[in-house]
Amino acid sequence: MDNILTIVGMQKSFGKSLLYSLPMFLISFMFLTGGRPDFSNPASGIALMVVFLFVNLLYFLMHYTGKTDRFRAVLFIIFALSLSYTLIHNMLEVRKSMSFNQADILECKIPFCHLVIPMMLLPAAFTKSIIFPGSIIGGFANISAMVVLWLGATLVLGRGFCSWGCFYGGWDDGFSRVRKRRAIKQISDLWKWMPFAVLLMVMLTAALSLTPTYCSWICPFKAVTEFEQVTSVESATKAGIFLSLFGGLVVVLPVMTRKRTQCSFLCPLGAISSLSNKITPFTVKIDKTACTECYKCVEVCPLFALSKEGIKEGEVSLFCSKCGKCIDACPKKAIHYGIRGIPAGTMKNFSRNLFLFVSFLFMAVFSSGPIINTLQGVLKLIF
Amino acid sequence: MSEAFILGLSSGSACLATCGIVMFPFFMAGSAGMKKIAWDLSVFLLTRLLVYFTLATLSWYFGQAIFGNPLVRTIVPGILYIMFAIMLVWYSISKNHNPVCPAKIVNTVNNHRIVPVFLGVVNSLGFCPALFIILTKGATQGTLVQSYLAFIAFFIGSSLWFIPLPLAGRIRKKEVLTKIGILATGLAGIIFMIKGLTNLIGGLING
User: Fold this and answer.
1) C-alpha distances in angstroms, A295 versus A89, A106, A200, A329?
2) Number of domains present in the structure of chain B
3) Degrees to nearest 5, angle at CA B26 with B24 and B29
4) Which residues partner with A284 through β-bridges?
5) What residues does each domain of chain A span?
6) d(C-alpha B49, C-alpha B154), whole Å
7) For a designed S-S bond to B116, which of A273, B30, B40, B46 qualifies (C-beta 3.0 to 4.6 A apart)?
8) Contact (CB, 8 A) for B195 and B54
9) CA–CA separation, A245 vs A240, rounded Å?
10) The domain containing residue B95 runs over which residues?
11) CB contact under 8 A, A198 and B187
């Protein structure tokens, strides 16, 4: 009987779930509408209301069912897809092409993305200049707004940013869910340090060339956003790298391994966010008294954050992105969201409610714009 | 002489940065202290000096025309980059797997004795703009000794930037830093491979 009570511990009644969802309902309404919903354009009005209700339904279901990851993933994946749609749509409207040329670079018309941040650090420190050809303030996806947003989210969520705020994480998260079983099971532990090696190389090469080398040469998501016009052997090589990395790390390997391989083996921003996991208030904790060492959490973790040795010690590594997959999978609810300084196994519900509110609000506010745009586009196509 | 020295000094930071993407992870990957790093650095610098002497001789004998040839400027560095890339990736893989191989060359690479030598060659033959200026200068010198002196001055100026590097050996290393260093060395190999292939294909297409 004790076990059953523990297992259903995160679920809430309908009324209680509704009550917990009310603050999210009000705040997201304010953020999405600015307090004054505009229904003058029917397509945008319908898109706004649908997205608002959809986002809040997901949050309600998180409380009602006690499950986190499956509802987070739905919004996270839609966010990634719709952001790519919005970016491509904007570029096709403005430039008539997904590629940018030297004139666009000189005019600083390139939208800024948070993945540039690691490359900016050394050149900014030594030359007091930003090596990305985007606008500092104003314009579409400006640098200062993105840096402030990322910094705030990282300080609060740590690597949770990678599962609750990243524009692109939804791509490999989505592909990692395609198959039910893993085709590749053995992956060396060494590879999980690769993002730090990429971070080191990206920082060194960016400092050397004073160009955002990750964007210019490595970023797999160039394949679904924008890329340099192919005019030379060099730009053709770059395009080849973008497509290969997207195909390999974002599509094929996640399908084969059921892991988020781009996030685990490449992303340099993930490496920085991992380090911030050491100071963030929210953590994932293991209650050793309840854990039966079944290692279901190790198997489902998409980012190699859990190991058998770590579970025995009751430790979650700094790679954890707080996605909640392990928490949903644990049959004894021994693994749970926690708050730094509060012992494992205590205040589970309070910690979860607080974490979900902060992280989901961030994702809802951040993702709603692109999703509304996409829905509007779809509605225009239909009608 | 002073002109060549200043030219070397001004372009040395770029040399350091080019080598930094290999040297930094390479020193992280090894278990080296100050002495070992100083030794590797000496080998690297000595190789550069030897290559510069060769270039000084060639530029004095043949004149600058040979180095102005686009094929020499793109295909030679391209091939060197690719060879160096293979070596770095090999080094990175062997550091993880420790294969037992009787071939001497495998052990030489695995014990990373050859990496600083090759880095010296690649760095010297990278044909940066400053090197082209000094090649032109070497080609216009009256005697071979004058050509050597110009290259020595250039070498000293550009090498000053590398002197603080052995201090990195004083940093106490954790095992995880070695792992990151090994992976980053492999990545540096991939970067050089791409650079080499781009140079080579670009050179062949554009003549």
Assistant:
1) 44, 53, 32, 10
2) 1
3) 110
4) A337
5) 10-86+348-383, 98-280, 281-346
6) 10
7) B40
8) no
9) 9
10) 2-206
11) yes
Q: Which residues contact B175 (CB under 8 A, 6 or more apart)?
A: none
| Beta strands A99-100 and A227-228, pairing class | parallel
Q: Looking at residues B91-107, what average pLDDT do you find?
A: 61
**CATH match for A281-346 among 3.30.70.20, 3.30.70.2640, 3.50.50.60, 3.30.1060.10:** 3.30.70.20
Would you state the pLDDT for residue A173? 96
User: Among positive and negative, which fits the CA dihedral B105, B110, B113, B117?
Assistant: positive
Q: Which residue has the tokens 């490359």?
A: A119
Chain A contact set for B180 (CB, 8 A): 193, 196-197, 200
Cβ atoms of B27 and B185 closer than 8 Å: no
Query: Which residues lie below 8 Å from residue B12, measured CB to CB, with a gap of 6+?
Result: B157, B158, B159, B160, B161, B162
Question: Across the interface, do B179 and A193 touch by the CB < 8 Å criterion?
Answer: yes
Tokens 């919004």 correspond to A75
Residue B141: what pLDDT? 65
Instruction: State how far the Cα of B8 lies from the Cα of B145, in Å rounded to an integer.
Output: 18
d(CA A157, CA A101): 36
**Pairwise CB contact (< 8 Å): B21 & A204:** yes
Backbone angles phi, psi at A284, to 5 degrees: -115, 130
What pLDDT sits at residue A304? 92
Q: Do A205 and B180 touch (CB under 8 A)?
A: no
Chain A residues within 8 A of B161 when measuring between CB atoms:
none
Residue A205 sits at the chain B interface (C-beta within 8 Å):
yes
* Dihedral angle over CA of B118, B121, B126, B127, nearest 10: -170
Six-digit token string for B186: 């492999």
Q: From the list A200, A232, A234, which residue is nearest B25 (CB)?
A: A200
Residue A273's contacts (CB-CB under 8 Å, 6 or more residues apart) are A154, A158, A159, A161, A162, A321
Query: Chain B: residue nearest A213 by CA?
Result: B191
Contact (CB, 8 A) for A368 and A51 = yes
Q: What is the pLDDT of residue B109?
A: 53
Task: Kindly determine whether residue A208 and residue B18, on different chains, have CB atoms separated by under 8 Å.
Answer: yes
Closest chain A C-alpha to B141 CA, distance in angstroms: 33
Q: Which of A211-215, A348-352, B35-39, B91-95 has maximum average pLDDT?
A: A348-352
Q: SS3 breakdown of chain B: % helix, strand, coil, rounded to 5?
A: 85, 0, 15
Residue B174 · residue B58 · CB < 8 Å = no
Q: Locate A198 and state its tokens.
A: 């990429």
Each residue of B23-64: pLDDT tens digit? Answer: 777 777 765 677 878 888 888 888 888 888 888 888 777 766
CA distances for B7 relative to A196, B129, B148, B150, B158, angstroms: 35, 10, 15, 10, 8
Sequence-separated (6 or more) residues with CB below 8 Å from residue B99: B106, B110
Could you tell me the pLDDT band of residue A360, with boundaries at 50, 70 and 90? Answer: very high
* CB-CB under 8 Å, B197 with A234: no
Q: Check if the beta carbon of residue A157 is closer than 8 Å to that of residue A232.
A: no
Q: How far is CA A104 from CA A55, A91, A140, A255, in A?
A: 36, 11, 14, 36
